[in-house]
Write a structure and sequence with these properties.
This protein has four helices and four strands, in the order ααβββαβα. It is an alpha+beta fold and 113 residues long. The radius of gyration is 16 Å and the shape is globular.
């Protein structure tokens, strides 16, 4: 059972960013030759178009990191399928980019902290 009211939970969830995270912004300083958040398939975090290289920074919870993923304790019927779709979508994106000759780098969020 959730220990927050619906309004409190809604506020907490609205504060979770899908882009512009601290980890991405920190990486942006280091990856100056890469375009930050290019408008490409799969929404990579960084891309270097000349060398056909894309970088994804995957959140440990959202992409089920083998080291840090903790299964949700509440609302499992919502979260488990959602997280599984994220993992499957990442695999599909990788396959499409590989078939097009791109280099793909996926970095776990915890590796940058």
């Amino acid at each position: 059972m959730d220990n927050l009211t619906k309004k409190q939970r809604s506020y907490c969830m609205s504060q979770i960013k899908s882009f512009g995270t601290k980890v991405e912004l920190k990486s942006k300083k280091e990856l100056k030759s890469f375009v930050y958040q290019p408008n490409l398939y799969g929404r990579p975090d960084f891309a270097e178009l000349k060398n056909k290289t894309i970088i994804f920074i995957d959140g440990c919870f959202w992409h089920k990191c083998p080291k840090h993923y903790i299964k949700p304790k509440s609302n499992k019927h919502y979260w488990l399928p959602k997280l599984e779709k994220n993992v499957l979508r990442a695999k599909e994106v990788n396959l499409n980019y590989k078939a097009s000759g791109w280099n793909i780098v996926r970095i776990w969020e915890h590796e940058l902290k």
